[in-house]
Amino acid sequence: MNGQGLGFPLFPPRASVLADRVDTLFFFLLALTGLVTLIVATLVIVFAVRYRRRPGRAIAPSQTAGSTLLELAWTIVPGLLFVVPFVWGARLYVDAAVPPPNALTITAIGKQWMWKFQHQGGQREIDSLHVPLGRPVRLLLTSEDVIHSLYIPAFRMKQDVLPGRYTTVWFQADRTGDFHLFCSEFCGTAHSRMGGQVTVMQPEAYERWLALGASESLASRGSKLFQQLGCNTCHRGDSLQRAPGLVGLYGRPVQLTDGRIVTADEDYLRESIVEPASKIVLGWQPIMPTFKGRVTDDELLQLVAYIRSLEPPAPEPFAPEGQPLFPAERRQGR
Amino acid sequence: MIVATVALERPHAETYLSAGTTARSWLLTTDHKRIGILYMVSITLMFLVGGVAATFMRITLLSPGGGVVAMETYNKLFTIHGVIMVWFFLIPSIPSVLGNFVLPMMLGARDVAFPRLNLASWYIFLAGSLFLLWTVVTGGVDTGWTFYTPYSTQYATSRVVSTTLGVFIVGFSSILTGLNFIVTTHRMRAPGLTWFRLPLFVWSLYATSLILVLATPVLGITLILVTIERWLGIGIFDPALGGDPLLFQHLFWFYSHPAVYIMILPGMGVISELIPTFSRKRLFGYTFVAGASIAIAVLGFLVWGHHMFTAGMSTHAALVFSMLSYLVAIPSAIKVFNWTATLYRGAVSFETPMLYAIGFIGLFTTGGMTGLFLASLAVDVHVTDTYFVIAHFHYIMVGGMVTAYMGGLHYWWPKISGRMYPENLGRLAAMTIFLGFNLTFFPQYILGYLGMPRRYAGYPPEFQVLNVLSTAGASILAVGYALPLAYLLWSLRYGERAGANPWGGTTLEWTTSSPPPEHNFEHTPIVTHGPYDYVRGPQGD
Amino acid sequence: MANIRVADRHAPAPQFDDLVQQREAAALGMWVFLVTEVMLFGGLFTVYTVYRWLHHPAFVEGSHHMALIAGAVNTAVLIASSFTMAQAVQRAQRGLRRGLLGFLASTALLGVVFLGLKAYEYWSHYAEGLVPGSPWTYAGPHSGPLQSFFFLYFAMTGLHAVHLTVGVGLVTGLIVLARRRRFTAAYHTPVEVIGLYWHLIDVIWVFLFPLFYLIG
Known about the structure:
The complex is a heterotrimer. Chain A is of the alpha+beta class. Chain A folds into three domains: 17-55 and 64-97, no CATH class; 104-213, Immunoglobulin-like; 218-333, Cytochrome c-like domain (Cytochrome Bc1 Complex, Chain D, domain 2, Orthogonal Bundle), CATH 1.10.760. Chain A has helices spanning 17-50, 68-97, 203-213, 218-228, 266-274, 297-308, 326-330, and strands spanning 104-111, 114-119, 124-126, 128-132, 136-143, 148-152, 157-161, 167-172, 177-183, 196-201, 253-255, 261-263. In chain A, helix 1 (17-50) runs antiparallel to helix 2 and helix 4 (218-228) crosses helix 6. Chain B is mainly α. Chain B has a single domain (29-511), classed as Cytochrome c oxidase-like, subunit I domain (Cytochrome C Oxidase, Chain A), CATH 1.20.210.10. Chain B is built from 16 helices and no strands. Chain B has helices at residues 23-27, 32-60, 71-106, 115-137, 151-155, 160-187, 200-232, 245-262, 265-279, 286-299, 315-343, 352-375, 377-383, 387-417, 423-450, 464-494. Chain C is 76% helix and 0% strand. Chains in contact: A-B, A-C, B-C. At the A-C interface, loops of A face loops of C.
């Protein structure tokens, strides 16, 4: 449906597993819309013509004012019909919200007016994103300034990026090629130029590409920062430990002093570094200084990658009930 | 305070138009009919400003590289287009023009409950407009009509504050109009005019007024917060100080979603008057249509999150908002079916107002169905913030509301001016508008699904043909709107003089002369039956 | 227009049929207006709720900086003023002009006392460097979110104080009219309607007081 006969496209390319599924739902909605429009338009036109005013028909001969049965029918039937696109769309949305455990993580920072991507091996890209075919890719997103939105139409995927917060989105590309990448949340003067290209490559080509651009990995840089900034003076496993241990922390539940239990995802790690006072782990003192202003967004992502690497990622980001509480285990050494 | 002697004792001037011809008699009027005309003039002027902005936008979008205006200028154009069209044209349009004129008469009243407050609301509208015009001439504003933070609070360097203050001020105009209509409807109905004998236009205005008074204050306080953050550097929505930019979005959309129902309910009310009159048949399902208006107003407050499905909201919240968004579509569907059923076995004629009404049904139905795409979470992720959304809301707001405004304007023109508009030109304009509208906005659905984001001054070259089609449509649409402007003005002088009831309407305003006398009714009518009764005729004596 | 006829104690304004309809319309109008006020403050209460949930420790800290005695006295003052306002309305309903004047004056006076105490509180916060924006000099813990607390304090109590000032002005206007014998047992709508407004101002303060002064 790329309008080759017309010379311009009527339908976007499909390049992800999700895209196919979204398009099917779209066509269902299109059919429903077409049907309803056809029915209403036909009835209106037929009635208007058939019952047009003529000499001898100055007012309507029958003044039927209603039918409760009809009202119930055309209230309940649409109501039931609407359940279909609601449930269908919701299922797809929920599936798209939770990445598979083996997803490749790539970080993305939006800033006026460019996208900075960084692969785990330290490969950097600006306004272009190389990804392998057939593998789930998870983007960890943030903004350095205003709200932007990363939009890849071919993947039917969009996610806002926020300053001071991480958001995530994932996709699995199933066709090779180059596809548009746009910013889709108005962000200032060059909003319409803030875009580029996603390149989906065969896995071997992707590996070669990675090797070309390899530099120090995010986790390795993060490890250096961890020492430089003195994090290891408190976050350590010996008798001088004054802060919760970080090994195996990522993805686990954490109990806080105010009674809440939160999951240690990337956003939690980021917040713990720049706003330590907002969530205190149960059993520890609020003595951590804030590093806001002392680390850039890039450095934050490196630290987060390092902490994440301290154990293989947890199989489920959401911990099942009944898990032992993380801090209590680690306090045994004090 | 000196009490002047009573108007009831001195003979009425012939009509409300001839009762005083000085500028002062217009600018200090408390007559709801004159206030409706004052609003008509002001919103038409604002519509022209917003329309000029749209013209430059569509010209720029003729070519992928943009270039007709600078990117920053383009951003200011779409911002001012949105701000003006929403708050200074659409929201006041039917309520403050047609509602002000017709509502008291439909109730058998001499005026609204608070006539001086009514005049004040017009002056407040003017004051807000002046702030906006000042923004336009001193460099413009480029935040989008949605003012998202932190761009609007910390990064924009354009005239944000004069805009937020202008919108804040005009919000009071909305609130006072809504307040007036609510009290008038409750307390000033003629004897025998029970709630279920009210014309459906009144029901729609009442539902609209509920939204006006409940939602607008929230917008007011939200804009004040943005203004304070900009002026005083206090980080309410600034993440660096513990603020939350998403909180702004929740507050903003809590108002702005109900606001879109302000921008369609009055239009539906007009259609509910036009269809029966031009089918000479009772509206089918009166009670359900009345109830649907209230249902839309109530449910409309519960769906704001569907503007934020990709903003970083929780999945659970998204599911709830999606479900409620489907629910709110149902009362609108009920109305469409009831309008259609009214035509069945009616006696239908095709004067200009009816052409607009039929056009409305088609355009509103399609626009409404595309709302179902947006309510479906997975599809919304793809099409939100693209031209699909732009097409959707223009189908409803222009294809729906503006079409209804034009229909109502032509319907009540004889009552307002005492003159008929030229019928053939009226029909020509209606058809030109329908054609131009579809050519402008249908390609935008396609552009949206293709992935063209909104608020873009340029785009990838493969999107050009559809953009050119859209601009071509816009030029036709402009001609369509220019025609009534010209012939309605022409008719004031040269139009055929109208009788009291040229359409054979049954609601109370048609029992007065065209134009009506200053106090509407010589004596208060007694209502004996419901509206749209073509056997018994008008509702009151 | 020369024949704008204002309502007086003999006959209703021309759009109304009788004084009863006029009074009912005025009362309903005021109730609708009060609902809009609730929605206006509601936006700020929402912001408060979100930020208190996000930054609870900062809010507890903020509450400790409030002058509890001043707040409690102000609460009592305002509740008393609602009582005197209700008495004023009752006197108006019975056509008792002297009682009406006395209770209106007490209400206005109590309102002024409230504003005076509030001004003192604002000044002392300023002196401690707790005014958000450029005058902020406080450097203790939670300084960032504490600014949010104080911003909300000044915004919400400030908006309240603006409304109270308008209320004092309106009550003063009522005193002027009452002195000119404008009100009778048959016509005293402005007193009733402004009484409703005054009560809402009181109710809003009753919510504000614990939210700022009594956390933790």
